[in-house]
Amino acid sequence: MKTREVHIVGNWKMNQTLHEISNFFIEMTKMKMELKCKAWIAPQSLHIPILKEIAFTTGAIQVGAQNCSNHDSGAFTGEVSPAALADMGVEFVIIGHSERRTIFGEDNKLLNEKVLAVLKHNLKVIYCVGETLEERESNDTFKVIEEQLKVGLQNVPADKAHLVLIAYEPVWAIGTGKVASAEQAEEVHAFIRGKLTQNSEQTIILYGGSVKPDNIDSLLRKENIDGALVGGASLKAQDFKQLCSASNHL
Ligand code: PEP
Questions:
Q1: 3-state secondary structure of 59
Q2: Coarse DSSP helix, strand, coil percentages of the chain, rounded to the nearest 5 percent
Q3: Cβ atoms of residues 151 and 191 within 8 Å
């Protein structure tokens, strides 16, 4: 029996048309199942209002964003404001996904500003950490993650610490089909929990990296793995529902 509530978070990245979104929820509704976990989805920002409407009618999911600016407003063409996200009623924002770190060059210091900007509006933040293959092979995994946590979470106010979730996503496992073994993941999750300076026992720590219906069970059985951040498999209603129902028999 898990003491922390299992969270399954779909990161749809830059995918899904309106037609596909509609089909996704038609499929989800057809597969009637009582879910014991929290099911969250982060669509493209443009689609947030549509998902919010669906969430309002079905009550089944919570909706979040994949990224946001470190500023609330101003001359930042193309950016998404955390204040506007709060206004739209999103429940959470993913910050520091490895694609933001590598493709868009976001560093720990900028990510810390984003974390604080999200928390200012009392939204939940999923702060992502994880090592590259090169860092793992040179035994730098723990050093890299410690730094990502130390800088990325600095100055989080004590009364907002309960809004912070962590996602451990080894970069070498994202979208590659190479999932970390449950033991490899648990080792890092336990390390992360040990490094958290606030709310450590209650903090939800998600694993991400090629999670699929056939490998989620062994991950969720680990003490410090409280759910998953899922890319590819969250796009298919059947897979997403299966991932969400995995926690039913824990
Ligand atoms: C992700 O994008 O956060 C992710 C884990 O992707 P995938 O599940 O496709 O590896």
A1: coil
A2: 45, 15, 40
A3: no
**29 touches 247 (CB < 8 A):** no
| Structure token digits, residue 159 | 């009364």
CA–CA separation, 74 vs 154, rounded Å?
25
Domains of the chain: 7-249 (3.20.20.70)
pTM of the model: 0.96
Residue 36 or residue 90, greater confidence = 90
The pair of three-digit structure tokens given for residue 143, joined into one six-digit string: 């050093």
Residue nearest to atom 4 of ligand 1 (CA): 231
Q: In 10 A of CB 73, how many CB atoms?
A: 11
Confidence of residue 57 (pLDDT cuts 50, 70, 90): confident
99 lines ligand 1 (CB under 6 A): no
pLDDT-derived band at 144 (thresholds 50, 70, 90) equals very high
Asked whether 239 lines ligand 1 (CB < 6 A), one says no
pLDDT higher than threshold 80 for residue 129: yes
Q: Which two tokens stand for residue 40?
A: 């969250």
Q: Just list the catalytic residues.
A: 97, 169
- Ligand 1 close to Cβ of residue 174 (< 6 A): yes
Q: What is the pLDDT of residue 33?
A: 66
- What pLDDT score does 1 carry? 64
- pLDDT at residue 216 is higher than 90: yes
Tell me which DSSP letter residue 64 carries.
E
CA of 98 to the centre of ligand 1 (A): 10
